[in-house]
Design a protein that fits this description.
The chain is mainly β and 514 residues long. The protein is built from eight helices and 34 strands. A five-stranded antiparallel sheet has the order 1-8-7-6-5. The longest helix has 11 residues. The protein starts with 10 loop residues before the first helix and ends in an 8-residue tail after the last helix. The structure holds heme D (DHE). The site of heme D (DHE) has 18 residues, from strand 9 and strand 34.
Length: 514
């Protein structure tokens, strides 16, 4: 019988270690794993380690991950610190169910909610002089801060403490005034850029993937690893409106891999980890009929029961990672262990093509541009030293550009001839390639700070400058002239991860993530 969301007290989120585990393994876990995966196994910088979140990973594979690390993640190898018996014991430990599975329902979300109503909308215009649409929001993961940077003068105008471990791109309201952040431990924060103040916060999950904001600025949707659900928040005050449990209506639940706004369709699209399905959730007032909706799936005020219906698009394989084409008609993505990528057409609701995309793109890493009347898509790979370029007319790979190593991020802008791609992993992590979008050749490889990871580029609103991060506690944001490729300025920052230009984000510029 389906388990309804139950209430539990907050302390079980902090100390629910299994009583059955022997103390020495529990100590090992705390010593080596708890710092990232949570002392309670509920996730932190790393994902939650519970049987219900691990069922796609066989136990032998888990032994390999602990021994050798997980490619393309922050998971290091432990083979020099732990012997085989220790690793086996840890695997047994993380596949043990917790005595009490923590729940995070409407009641807990409401109890976590903070809303500073007095600062919301009181300020009619920005409290600073800079162009509010050419600001950069820079996430500094090194000390959990965010910097608001003037994109004309390249000077910080404000810096504030964020929640721990923000991950994924912050999302903006369509006028660029408000920005929303998600932390890996479920905190959603809304920041007023005009007033330079955080106006609302809520904890929407225990272990969260990311958030999306509806194009009509009314809703925020949060995708969670734990619980297995999607949470709809009111975008104004971040109050929870509805929880949508992610399940197949029979017995299987799923983690959410990521959720995105598909503005032209007035819907959110969610990629799932444990079901071979993609979900579309309409946010229209008069939503389309997607078929019978199971009432048990929802928690929230009764008046929201019929809203946010789910369309389940069934696939042959998992779709862990995807990006949209520029029209939002197609999803292009791949499963974590898939041999091929797939194109899912949202109009007809099924896979329409297989594509040669085996090396796993990082979510949101794909960009597009026009060439000779066709739209090209390009993405780096987490498992392959290459950038794949695809012609979207026929979904054929027209070129694999060899790089010095697997990469995380690729960025461009319609006003530049170049696309920038990092080499995030391996001995060349300090290298960044610059690719000519017309010839599809690497024209230059920069090494801005030898030995230090250089990654994630974002352009100014006019595309004249490219800003690149040095991912180090003693790091920097480096501003390049996007035409001459010469360094213009270096701004010290504490491990700046992503940076997001307000104008490029709200106009859905083709060279950046949406
Ligand atoms: Fe990310 C975006 C998933 C590891 C930094 N990453 C995203 C998004 C997803 C995702 C779902 C899109 C969310 C959005 O913008 O709405 N990331 C994953 C993974 O599955 C993976 C491989 C393993 C994991 O730990 O979850 C992973 N990501 C990392 C890192 O190790 C990085 C480099 C450092 C960190 O902060 O954890 C990292 N991811 C980022 C950044 C973005 C991102 C900076 C936003 C890019 C953008 O320009 O939009």
């Amino acid at each position: 019988m389906r388990r309804r969301i139950r209430l539990v007290i907050f302390c079980c989120l902090v100390y629910p270690i299994t009583s059955s585990a022997d103390t020495s393994t529990a100590n090992l876990y705390q010593q080596h794993c708890g710092g990232c995966h949570g002392v309670d196994r509920l996730g932190g910088n790393g994902p939650a380690l519970l049987p219900q979140n691990l069922h796609r990973l066989k136990q032998e594979a888990a032994v390999q991950v602990i021994t050798n690390g997980a490619p393309a993640t922050q998971m290091p190898p432990f083979k020099d610190k732990l012997n085989t018996a220790n690793i086996d014991a840890l695997v047994q430990y993380i596949y043990q169910p917790l005595d009490d599975v923590p729940q995070w329902g409407i009641e807990q979300i409401n109890a976590s909610h903070v809303f500073a109503a007095s600062t919301d909308g009181d300020v009619a215009k920005p409290v600073f002089d800079a162009d509010p649409l050419n600001l950069f929001v820079v996430v500094e993961t090194g000390d959990h801060h965010v910097t608001i940077l003037d994109g004309d003068k390249f000077e910080p105008i404000h810096r504030f403490k964020s929640r721990r471990a923000l991950h994924g791109g912050p999302k903006f309201t369509s006028d660029g005034r408000f920005v929303y952040f998600a932390s890996r431990d479920g905190w959603i924060s809304k920041f007023d850029i005009y007033a330079l103040e955080t106006v609302a916060e809520v904890r929407a999950g225990i272990n969260t993937r990311n958030l999306a904001v509806s194009s009509d600025n009314r809703y925020v949707m949060v995708g969670n690893y734990l619980p297995h659900n999607l949470v709809v928040l009111d975008a104004n005050d971040l109050k929870p409106l509805k929880i949508i449990s992610v399940d197949d209506g029979i017995d299987n639940t799923s983690r959410v891999s990521a959720v995105y706004d598909a503005g032209p369709r007035n819907s959110f699209i969610a990629a799932l980890k444990d079901l071979t399905e993609v979900w579309e959730i309409s946010y229209e007032d008069d939503p389309p009929y997607y078929g019978k909706v199971h009432d048990y799936r929802y928690e929230g005020p009764p008046e929201n029961l019929g809203e946010f219906p789910v369309r389940r698009i069934k696939l042959d394989d998992y779709l862990d990672d995807f990006f949209f084409d520029q029209d939002y008609d197609n999803l292009v993505g791949a499963g974590r262990n898939a041999k091929n990528g797939q194109v899912v057409n949202l109009l007809v609701g099924r896979k329409i093509a297989d594509i040669n995309l085996a090396g796993l793109p990082h979510l949101g890493s794909g960009i597009s541009w026009q060439q000779n009347g066709t739209t090209l898509l390009a993405t780096p790979h987490l498992k392959e030293a290459a950038v794949t370029v695809i012609d979207t007319d026929n979904w054929q790979t027209i070129k694999k550009i060899e790089t010095l190593g697997p990469g995380f991020f690729m960025r461009s802008h319609k006003n530049t001839d170049y696309a920038w791609v990092d080499v995030f992993f391996g001995p060349n992590k300090d290298a960044v390639h610059i690719i000519n979008k017309n010839t599809l050749e690497i024209v230059k490889t920069l090494r801005p700070q030898p030995g230090k990871t250089a990654a994630h580029v974002e352009f100014t609103r006019d595309g004249r400058y490219a800003l690149l991060s040095i991912w180090d506690m003693d790091g920097a944001l480096i501003v390049y002239d996007a035409k001459t490729l010469q360094e213009v300025k270096r701004i010290p920052m504490v491990k700046p991860s992503g940076k997001y230009n307000v104008y490029n984000k709200i106009t859905k510029e083709e060279g950046t993530s949406h």
